Structure formats: C-alpha cells, structure tokens
C-alpha cells in the first residue's frame, strides 16, 4: 500500500472513530461518572495497552531520548489531556453534534496561527473563509433563529478543546514527525495520565465502585475512540501532512451528528445543519489553497 493512500485510509478511519466518541462519552456519563472519572480509567487502560503493543512491535525504539521525552511530555500535558478534558467537559453541557462542530473550528485556529506567527500572507479568499466559518458558528448556535439556549460554559469548553487540538496537530508535525505514531500515542497518553492522577486519584476504582456497564463503555472509549483513531491520526499526519488530514477529519461532524440523532435522540435543527455545512466549507476553502510542502495548513 502506497504511503499516500495509507495516509488517506488512516485519516478517514480516524475521523469516523473520533465521530463516535461523543455518543460513548454521553452513554458513560449516564452511568453516574463525571469527565475526570471517565478519563482517568480510560487513560489507565490505554497506557497499559499502548505500551504493551509498543514493546512487542517497537522493542528497540520504545526508549526515547531525553529531548524527545520532553517533547512527548509537552504534547501529552498541553495537548492531549487538556484537549480531552475540555472535550469531555463540553459534553456535560452541550449536545454531541454541537460539541463536535465547535471542536472542528480547529483548522481555522491553525490558519490564524500560521498567518500571525509564520507571517504567511493573508489573501482575500482566506478572509472570506474565516467569515463564512464565523457565520457557520452563529447558525450552529441557533443565534439567528432566536433560540440560543446553550450553556456558555459548554461553548467555552468546546472552543478550548479546538485550541488544544490545533496545538496537537501543529506540534506533532513540527516536533515529532519522525517518531513512530504508536510510541507518540503511548508516551503522550502516559504523561496525560500522570496529570489526571495528580488532579484526581481514582480511589473509587480500588473501592470497586465502577459498574460493569461503566467499565465496558470506558473500554470502548479507550480502544475505539482513543488508541486506534489517535494512532491513525499521527500516522496520517506523517504520511500526508496536517493539511489534508484537517480536510478529511471534517467527516467527524456528520458522523457525530448522525449518531447523536439516531442513538441518543438529540435534535438537530435545519439551522445547525446549515451551520455545519458552512463550517466544513470554510475549512475546505482555507485548506485547499496551494501551500508549500512544509506548511502546516
């Protein structure tokens, strides 16, 4: 399989699996666990699985240099755990489709970063794209229809998850592109877990307070919604770059919207569907412009 083709397959699979995360988070929260509880158990399982597979597959590469270890720690603490905490917290206040649409404003944030800090020229088409995305967010929040009834706290968490997710993509491509994706995932998850243990040690686990349903759903989150899609994401960035990955990952929006409507019975309005379409189109306008080989977006 050619590397470019493999990158597309990895990216599409990653987007679809990430799109199922909101549904499983909501179902797990319904068992009485909050975001921190879910994440602590999820990351514990993920670390055990990731390092076991990494040891078997990359025995000679599993020990990384001090410099790479620091970079992986930065990715895990400032990227992975921060993004996931905000993402899961947003689900406590907002519907799945809404959180997903807020998360996928992240390519626009990458564009802003690229324009300001890398001093890329901002042309009219990109300004128009950002404006379209802004209008899309207004439609998504039902402001136009006068039915805005969503939690401001949830919206802040949703947008913060996009900020940290954009950081993950930029930092991975700039600092860790030569590292094996599975090892990146293993170490970043480990450092994320350390932060979570300091924040809230899972005493409730040792007391046997987790139900079978909670463990089952968290297991799905760890494997289906974290280990596989995140490893595929890092692989896709390595093969085809963050530019194409950011375009393909928009598949998560219709996936999450469809599943939340079918499985959870959450309502999706016409305005929200229009808003989602505008956001996707704006991201496409920003991303499809010809860029230099080493440009992030």
From TrEMBL:
Transmembrane segments annotated in the record for this chain: 7-27, 39-58, 70-90, 96-115, 127-144, 150-170, 182-203, 215-235, 247-264, 270-287
Keyword annotations of the record: Membrane, Transmembrane, Transmembrane helix
InterPro entries, alphabetized: EamA_dom (IPR000620), EmrE-like (IPR037185)
Keyword Transmembrane helix among UniProt keywords: yes
Keyword NADP: no
Boundaries of every EamA domain copy: 6-141, 153-287
One Pfam family this sequence matches: EamA
Family: Belongs to the EamA transporter family.
Entry-linked PANTHER family: ACYL-MALONYL CONDENSING ENZYME-RELATED, SOLUTE CARRIER FAMILY 35 MEMBER G2-RELATED
Name recorded for this polypeptide: DMT family transporter
The organism of origin for this protein: Clostridium oceanicum
């Amino acid at each position: 399989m050619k590397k470019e083709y493999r990158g597309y397959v990895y990216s599409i699979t990653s987007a679809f699996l990430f799109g199922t995360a909101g549904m499983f988070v909501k179902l797990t929260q319904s068992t009485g666990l909050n975001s921190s509880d879910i994440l602590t158990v999820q990351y514990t399982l993920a670390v055990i699985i990731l390092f076991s597979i990494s040891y078997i597959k990359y025995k000679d590469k599993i020990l990384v240099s001090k410099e790479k270890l620091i970079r992986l720690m930065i990715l895990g603490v400032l990227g992975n755990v921060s993004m996931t905490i905000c993402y899961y917290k947003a689900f406590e206040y907002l519907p799945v489709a809404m959180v997903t649409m807020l998360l996928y404003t992240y390519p626009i944030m990458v564009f802003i970063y690229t324009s300001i800090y890398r001093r890329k020229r901002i042309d009219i088409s990109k300004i128009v794209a950002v404006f379209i995305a802004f209008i899309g967010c207004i439609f998504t929040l039902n402001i136009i229809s006068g039915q805005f009834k969503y939690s401001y706290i949830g919206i802040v968490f949703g947008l913060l998850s996009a900020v940290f997710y954009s950081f993950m993509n930029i930092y991975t491509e700039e600092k860790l592109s030569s590292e094996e994706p599975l090892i990146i995932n293993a170490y970043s998850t480990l450092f994320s877990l350390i932060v979570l243990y300091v924040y809230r040690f899972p005493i409730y686990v040792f007391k046997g307070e987790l139900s079978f349903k909670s463990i089952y759903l968290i297991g799905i989150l760890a494997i289906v919604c974290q280990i596989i899609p995140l490893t595929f994401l890092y692989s896709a960035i390595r093969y085809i770059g963050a530019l194409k990955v950011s375009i393909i990952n928009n598949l998560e929006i219709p996936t999450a919207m469809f599943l939340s409507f079918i499985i959870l019975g959450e309502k999706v309005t016409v305005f929200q569907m229009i808003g989602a379409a505008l956001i996707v189109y704006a991201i496409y306008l920003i991303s499809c412009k010809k860029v230099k080989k080493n440009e992030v977006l």
